[in-house]
Amino acid sequence: MTVEQVRWKEGFPKIGIRPTIDGRRKGVRESLEDQTMAMAESVARLLTEQLRYPNGQPVECVIADSCIGGVAESAACATKFARAGVGVSITVTPCWCYGTETMDMDPSIPKAVWGFNGTERPGAVYLAAVLAGYAQKGLPAFGIYGGEVQDAGDTTIPEDVKEKLLRFAKAGIATAIMRGSSYLSMGSVSMGIAGSMVSDSFFQEYLGMRTEYIDMTEFVRRMEEGIYDSAEFEKALAWVEENCKEGADNNPESIQKTREQKDQDWETVVKMTLIARDLMVGNPRLAELGYGEEALGHNAIVSGFQGQRQWTDHFPNGDFLEAILNSSFDWNGIRAPYLVATENDSLNGAVMLMGYLLTNTAQIFADVRTYWSAESVERVTGHKLDGLAENGMLHLINSGPATLDGTGEQQENGKPVMKPFWNITEEEADRCLQATSWRPASVEYFRGGGYSSDYLTRGGMPMTMSRINLVKGIGPVLQIAEGYSVELPEHVHDVLDKRTDPTWPTTWFAPVLNGEGAFRSVYDVMDNWGANHGSISYGHIGADLITLASILRIPVNMHNVPDEKLFRPRAWGLFGTKDAEAADYRACQNFGPIYK
């Protein structure tokens, strides 16, 4: 078996659909059975058709064996769901039901209720009653109610209901997939970065994840003792020689490495990549080589590589390792990315994971490095910014870990995009590789050498930048900025890029401004960003992130998502309806972490 074949060996959580019904027999229940079950089946069909797991397979749904009219049937449904591996529940009904008798009582499962908007039976009355019960019991649930009245025989799902069902289901599945997985800390704290101080309590209580740790000497041990698949190493090295073009060496000639030393660095960084992947998910080939313990891996859905400085002062840096694993392809072909946070910034790793599970696309890791005003750009380059960048832009750049998908060389309808791996063609993967050069690492930063990926993201892509920060006394908070990648004239990019380290990948990012709070100007976005790093997802996914954050009880301190797209548990409105941001903080503090 290969690494990819065993990577998702434990499978994925399913979505449970709970058709609830008025339990009164001799006419009432009997008249509603078909309609109620049809609602459940239509929801299951929608989710299976529209949503996929990280391995590309359709999301699986489990429907209760019967409609749920009371406690006995609720218990039977809960038993079935537990045995089937259900991690998310959606209750549907066209009618009045007995609220606390038919509700889902599992506190760790995200839950939503769709109450049919019809006049024949009071589905909306049940929805209001059961959501009140959930709030009273401290089990926040999402309420879904269509904006238009439907006829009793209408089996379609209105568009506004579809949008909420899909948004909740994506966030719920993301929550359930994280639970029980691990963050693997490869090394410790990098250069005093607070996000590198991995918080066990955050990962355990808010995400339901373990934290695993290895010392970076484990890389040395595995390299020196040959604890990796040597056949795959030879295959990977040949692929690198053919596909990873080496760029110009910016180091002074007197300290540049020899050709022999550079070739040795290539061998080392390829081995490091294999070892990091094996540490995360295991590799059955290692068991065949006599390393049964190492073959198991750490069940890590995301990891972080410390690198600086203890490693990079002596060994080649981790830029190649991070860039290739974060990409959707390597020497084994097109596959799902392995998430690796540079400098072991576990908080950025966590939000990379959230963005990945919501989109199934690779994530860009970057420094939020510089705010360039239109005036500054014109002063330095003579060029007047216009279009998406007319109000200024942010220079997102960091050494190495940015996914090669971030080049924008994948396309849809002639426009640059980032795709789930199952939609990426071999030609698109090759274009991403050809758009990237591998520059010998700056000895100023990396005394041990190595290679940094260098590319420029194509402009015009909708993107969402996000970040989790920990605040003493509050806990985690999430910030979000939707915007677009920007394309600059070549000479303008060159001038600006050379003012920092030009051997690293660049994304020029223009956040969408709305004239409010942190989004009055691009400067305000930069000024309010809570840390030195951010994770960038393809697409405007801020609304999905907000829904996911509310499930996890993580308040959002900054976002530019339109109010009409906000979707949180109904109980959030009980903490105030005038100021949604303040109500979010109060609700998250009141209910506390989902797994505490």
UniProtKB/TrEMBL annotation:
Cited SUPFAM superfamilies: FucI/AraA C-terminal domain-like, FucI/AraA N-terminal and middle domains
Domain called L-fucose isomerase N-terminal-1: residue spans: 13-180
Domain L-fucose isomerase N-terminal-2 intervals: 182-360
Matching Pfam families: Fucose_iso_C (PF02952), Fucose_iso_N1 (PF07881), Fucose_iso_N2 (PF07882)
Top-level taxon of the source organism: Bacteria
Residues the entry annotates as binding Mn(2+): 343, 367, 533
Domain L-fucose isomerase C-terminal: 396-559
Subcellular location: Cytoplasm
Pathway: Carbohydrate degradation; L-fucose degradation; L-lactaldehyde and glycerone phosphate from L-fucose: step 1/3
Assigned keywords, A-Z: Carbohydrate metabolism, Cytoplasm, Fucose metabolism, Isomerase, Manganese, Metal-binding
GO molecular function, one term: L-fucose isomerase activity
Catalyzed reaction equations: L-fucose = L-fuculose
Entry EC no(s): 5.3.1.25
InterPro entries on file: Fuc/Ara_isomerase_C, Fuc_iso_dom3_sf, Fuc_isomerase_C, Fucose_iso_dom1_sf, Fucose_iso_N1, Fucose_isomerase, Fucose_isomerase_dom2_sf, Fucose_isomerase_N/cen_sf
Needed co-factor(s): Mn(2+)
Catalytic residue positions: 343, 367
Function field: Converts the aldose L-fucose into the corresponding ketose L-fuculose.
Family of this protein: Belongs to the L-fucose isomerase family.
The protein, known as: L-fucose isomerase
Organism: Paenibacillus hexagrammi
Native organism taxonomy: Bacteria, Bacillati, Bacillota, Bacilli, Bacillales
Gene: fucI
